[in-house]
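Tokens for chain A. Residues wanted.
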């Protein structure tokens, strides 16, 4: 009986993993080979689960591209879940204000497990923009400035636990995201109150982030800014940081009151 339960839990975990991989791929979808590689499953196992998810309408296989994409049931479930979890309606004007005051691209991201997912993007008036972040893109905690801001406000025990298990998740992002390097940026973020990403994702594209808290006082979301390096000079960063923190505080108060 125990073995049957364990097998059922494993199957659900694997199906959830494949759903996340496909959704992370964005509108273009994910190739079977990429899903197999990223999941670590054998090709027959991955294909069997993908086919089952397709039969339930949770995934679909594009006939032209042969890439896996979210299915209609995912849309319907997401529509229902949005009523409880989507904060976009409460946050849009604050993200828009952040972009207007700084003239940079502004974003709202939400924490989902060990990742952040970008929910909202608003471009500022400055004509040169960074396109590292866009709606739906996911990053491991500590990689983009939003995730670094959230990670830095977790407890030391939570940070230790995350860094101990996140090696495979962080490895593709290079040496700058090894535990020792992340710990240094976490300490700096705690000291300054906001996170800075000095072009670690794309050379010349900088980011800054500040955490937004839920009713329980947990860092559940983050506001962030991205732009070219010259716009994030040592003289301007404290100004941007102050504006970020003001907007993050305003959004925290609003979401805690809803």
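Reply:
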């Amino acid at each position: 009986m125990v073995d049957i339960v364990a097998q059922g839990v494993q199957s659900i975990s694997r199906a959830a993993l494949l759903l996340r991989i496909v959704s992370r791929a964005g509108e273009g979808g994910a190739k079977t080979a990429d899903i197999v590689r990223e999941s670590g499953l054998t090709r027959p196992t991955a294909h069997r689960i993908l086919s089952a998810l397709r039969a339930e309408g949770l995934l679909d296989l594009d006939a032209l591209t042969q890439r896996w994409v979210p299915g209609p049931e995912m849309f319907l479930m997401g529509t229902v879940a949005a009523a409880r979890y989507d904060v976009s309606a409460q946050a849009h004007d604050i993200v828009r204000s952040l972009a207007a005051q700084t003239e940079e691209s502004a974003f709202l991201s939400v924490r989902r497990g060990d990742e952040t997912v970008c929910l909202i993007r608003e471009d500022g008036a400055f004509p040169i923009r960074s396109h590292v972040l866009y709606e739906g893109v996911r990053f491991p905690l500590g990689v983009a400035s939003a995730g670094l801001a959230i990670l830095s406000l977790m407890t030391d025990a939570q940070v230790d636990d995350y860094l101990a298990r996140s090696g495979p998740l962080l490895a593709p992002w290079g040496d700058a995201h090894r535990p020792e390097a992340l710990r240094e940026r976490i300490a700096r973020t705690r000291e300054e109150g906001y996170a800075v990403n000095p072009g670690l994702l794309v050379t010349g594209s900088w980011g800054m982030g500040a955490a937004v808290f839920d009713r329980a006082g947990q860092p559940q979301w983050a506001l962030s800014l991205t732009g070219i390096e010259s716009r994030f000079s040592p003289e301007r960063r404290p100004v941007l940081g102050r504006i970020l923190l003001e907007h993050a505080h305003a959004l925290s108060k609003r979401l805690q009151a809803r």
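The CA atoms of residues 128 and 228 lie 7 Å apart. The chain has a mean pLDDT of 90.
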